[in-house]
Design a protein that fits this description.
The strands form 3 sheets. An 8-stranded parallel barrel has the order 4-5-6-7-8-9-10-11. It has 2 domains: 113 residues, no CATH class; 254 residues, Aldolase class I (TIM Barrel, Alpha-Beta Barrel), CATH 3.20.20.70. Helix 9 packs across helix 11. It is an alpha/beta fold. The radius of gyration is 23 Å and the shape is globular. The longest helix is centred in the last third of the chain and has 26 residues.
């Protein structure tokens, strides 16, 4: 925690002690000079921080102790895929053959060293000269052009290890069922076009994971003006709600969150909100290479840059849970987050810094205290309506 973070927390505590009520605006706005800017236009990730380990949960030393990053994809009878770094390279940008060749070399080198990272592609990677050693998920966006039988019949030794199917409407259910019967690898379903509906029917088909692209969803009418934080929170809640009544010993589908992910800190925050795997932007992955510069293409140098970038990212991902007092990256949860933004607290159910309670929890306590003092009664649904009116749902 830097000095500015400590200053904001101390000031927030003093203000809360003085007034006895939560603030109606973010403390960060005074420091960042954004008081007159619509909060919904601000990147709320900048208002969310991870809190370090406490005395009851001492920090780990990532250089001396094992910090687990592994994540398994595949439930039931599905063939399992294990990623050693919880990232799947994902993006809609068109890449030329040089870029694909560079990615192939870098990912193979990582896999050979036990640092397996996945990739999602609609096209193909030429692996004839150097066999692929990393998991490839083939994205199917148009079933009319890629009928399940035709698609799976073309499989060979370089075929995809997993599939990503883009869910469009109710007719997609039959297609997923067909794919599930013919394909024994993990199947992820991209629900970005129909989110947040259809979760239960998709999960009933024993799909291995749900993919949510926050950039697509925040542009939809339902989430217009909302942040990715709200999308991730809703997606995690939907999965938890589905499995709440299920057998705890059964495998659960994983949640893949893709979108505007451009830093290790943001990856950790997305994971804390509930993502099992993060769709790492293809363009960001290659950002430090020569691919967007005026220098001539050099497949080897680009591959080296991508490799170094991923190794650095992995070490940073190991360091974050260690600093929080966890030996497993996936133990990070919303309780490890704090925010100075009321909007972020509302959208992501994140505790406010200085009081360690979400904004809704604080308002709920104030309502209960008011009703008790005035000897008034309100039903649960009426209280819920009040909370909903201030953005709780």
């Amino acid at each position: 925690m830097n000095d500015s973070d400590k200053f904001m927390i101390r000031r927030a505590v003093l203000e809360l002690a003085k007034t006895g009520i939560p603030r109606s605006a973010s403390m960060d706005d005074n420091i960042r000079k954004t008081r007159d800017i619509n909060l919904r236009a601000i990147n709320l990730w900048d208002y969310v921080t991870l809190i370090g380990a406490q005395l009851s949960r001492p920090a780990y030393d990532p250089y001396r102790e094992t910090i687990n990053l592994d994540i398994s994809i595949g439930i039931g009878k599905s063939r399992k895929i294990v990623l050693n770094i919880p990232l799947i390279i994902y993006g809609s940008i068109d890449m030329d053959s040089y870029s694909l060749d560079s990615l192939h070399l870098a990912l193979n080198r990582l896999a050979e060293q036990g640092q397996v990272v996945g990739i999602i592609l609609e096209g193909e990677i030429n692996t004839k000269k150097d066999k692929r050693k990393y998991p490839l998920f083939k994205k199917i966006s148009s079933i009319s052009e890629n009928h399940p039988g035709d698609l799976l019949g073309e499989c060979n030794e370089f075929c995809a290890d997993g599939l990503v199917f883009e869910y469009k409407d109710d007719s997609s259910v039959d297609i997923i069922r067909d794919l599930r019967e013919q394909f024994d690898g993990p199947i992820l379903v991209d629900v970005s076009n129909v989110f947040p509906s259809s979760f239960n029917s998709i999960l009933d088909l024993k799909t291995d994971g749900i993919l949510v692209d926050t950039e697509k969803i925040t542009k939809s009418s339902r989430y217009n003006g909302k942040h990715a934080i709200k999308v991730i929170c809703d997606a995690r809640n939907a999965l938890n709600s589905y499995y709440k009544s299920k057998d705890e010993s059964s495998d659960n589908a994983i949640l893949v969150i893709a979108g505007d992910v451009n830093s290790t800190g943001k990856i950790a925050k997305v994971a804390a909100l509930g993502a099992d795997i993060i769709g790492y932007s293809t363009s960001i992955l290659i950002a430090n290479s020569y691919i967007y510069s005026e220098k001539p293409y050099d497949v080897i140098s680009i591959a080296e840059s991508v490799y170094r970038h991923m190794i650095g990212t992995k070490e940073e991902l190991r360091g974050i849970p260690a600093a929080l007092g966890y030996s497993d990256f996936h133990n990070i949860s919303p309780s490890d987050l704090r925010t100075s933004s009321i909007d972020a607290s509302l959208q992501g159910n994140i505790p406010l810094e200085g009081i360690d309670k979400t904004y809704l929890d604080t308002i709920g306590e104030l309502i209960d205290e008011f009703l008790s003092n005035k000897e008034l009664n309100m039903t649960y649904s009426e209280v819920r309506d009040v909370l909903k009116s201030i953005g709780g749902e």
